[in-house]
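Example record used in the benchmark description.
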Amino acid sequence: MASGHTNRGEQGAHHGPRTLPESLAAPEVLATWRLRALIVAVVFALLTFLCFSWTPEGKNHILRAYLMGYMTCFGFAGGGLVMLMLQYVSGGKWGLLLRRPLEAMSRTLPLLALMFLPIILLGKHLYQWMKYPDPASEIEAYRNHWITQEQMLTANAKQSMLNPRAMIVEYCVIYAVLLTFMFLLNRWSLERDADPLAGTEPSFERWRTKFENLSGPGILIYVIMLTLGAIVWIKSLDVTWYSSIWGLQFLVAQGYSVLALGILSVILLSRYEPMKTLLRATEQHDLGKLAFAFVMLNIYLCFAEFLIIWSGNVPDELPWYLNRIHGGWWTICTLDFVCHWLIPFCLLLSRDLKRNKRKMIWLTCWMIFARCVDMFWLIEPNFNDSAGYLHIGRHFEMLAYITVPVAVLAAWTAYYLTQLMARPLVNANDPHLEEILEPEHAH
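Model output (structure tokens):
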């Protein structure tokens, strides 16, 4: 017993607390990653222009694919902001490693605000209510059999919310609110870093209260803004579609994608200092469990809505799902289910996988890919030439759904990496930092 006690004591002395690296700045390799992302963005943008911009059908598919890429990037930027607020409200050491990536994601919101302008300017090619903005034009479109009677009546009923002028107002309100939260949270984060007493009890409580007082109401306000944006930007592609949990589905999906990108960022950064010293298997395991929770919640919300509509069997609600199942869309629907839910759910059940860096890199990349598949399934069947009929093999322009989102995501990634390089990768005066530097416990 004495010998065993001595060995454990020697082991504890050998594996003592790790030393915080002298520099907490982002590694220089991020500049290389950013350059690669920019090259990918340029190459795929040129491919899009050369291959798909010469026909009206190609231009329409480019715009639809741009909306898909935009909404995926908005999920990272807006989701990073609300996840940052969630971390400030809930606390815990899990957020210390993710805080800088989340802040960097949120600071891409100004870019997203600019990227939305093409959607406003070319919206008449996407939205029925922008192409026919008043009752007279809708009646004429109905008489010419361009829209159905249900589409005409529904658009008239929703005209106060769905019209070109309202879209501009909604866009301004949404981004004004989100940019305000982004500015305050990021500015206060720098000010807390500069406060030498931020790690002590009185000052720590003051900063914690300050962040909580903004983040608590901020989460509720963000949910409202996201619901408004999701309805106007995506759901209104089909004016006849109704959903009471549409905003909540997008909120959970944003958490799903943000955690995938955040975990991927942290693990890739752990190849270099300072994250190499900071990331323990314990915190990686905790982040994996949090991602697993969002996978389950995502499954629950989407399946629950489908089950309710299927059991209700109301003719007004069924076409939205039928357009995404018939005519070849069953393949995409199955792919979405397998990629988006089944594979992440089954793999994240494994404790060993959540603690394995290489496997988590592949899984998080897969989850980001799955979000793109889901966004394609949500957007493309809203249009008459694709509703209930998947025509990838017959229409070459559908391949724009590969080139355009890749170009948009690569450009956003380059800006995200720029923001990640702008600040130290960890808050040096956070009380949880000392705990993270402790050695791993035996299991």
